[in-house]
Each structure stands twice: as C-alpha cells, then as structure tokens.
Amino acid sequence: MNTPEFQTLLEQLRHELESADSIDDKGRELLQALDADIHALLERSEQASLSSTLSRLDAAIVHFEVEHPRLTAALSQLFASLSNAGI
C-alpha cells in the first residue's frame, strides 16, 4: 500500500494535524494509536491490523467531526483509501 497516492494522503493528514488548533487528550490518544497502526500496515500489510486501523480511523472521524472538519476530511480520505485497497 506504499503508493504515491497513499503517501500523499499521509502527508495531507500530517499537514492537517500540524495546523489543528487544539486537540484534546482523547483525540491525541486516537491519533497516536492510528500513527502506530499505519506504520505497522506499511511494514507488514496484515489484514488483522487493517481491521483495527479502520476501527480507530472511524473513531477518530467521529471524534474530530465537529471541531476539526479539515482533519476529519483527511482521515476520511485515508479511511476510504485503506478500505478500497483491501490490504
């Protein structure tokens, strides 16, 4: 899944994270867990990890939906990309 499109999505997500005004503790925990999941997927591409990652992405999307719409959009694009890839 280490494609140029996926790398672009990750860079967009990093940019949105850097520009987010404030992130609460729960949001920070969600993002740290997602970061670990994404790195594991890039290294191993295991189906079990994908299910956990998609679940965390979904939780992050719900958590950030109201206060961070641009971050939510980046997370949604990543979710769609991972789902469509079927790693």
Please summarize what this structure is.
This protein is mainly α and about 90 residues long. Helices cover about 80% and strands about 0% of the residues. It is globular.
Q: Your description of this structure?
A:
With 87 residues, this protein is an all-alpha fold. The chain is built from four helices and no strands. The chain has one domain. The mean pLDDT is 79. 82% of the residues lie in helices and 0% in strands. 21% of the residues are buried. The N and C termini lie close together (7 Å). Helix 2 (25-44) runs antiparallel to helix 3 (47-64) and helix 3 packs antiparallel against helix 4 (69-85).
List the helices and strands and how they pair.
Elements: H1 4-19, H2 25-44, H3 47-64, H4 69-85
Helix pairs in contact: 1-4, 2-3, 3-4
Features:
single chain; 87 residues; mainly alpha; 4 helices
Count of strand segments: 0
Which structural class is indicated by helix and strand composition? mainly alpha
User: Total helix count?
Assistant: 4
Distance between the termini: 7 Å
General form: globular
Strand content: under 5%
Let me know the largest β-sheet: none
Order of helices and strands: HHHH
Helical content band: over 70%
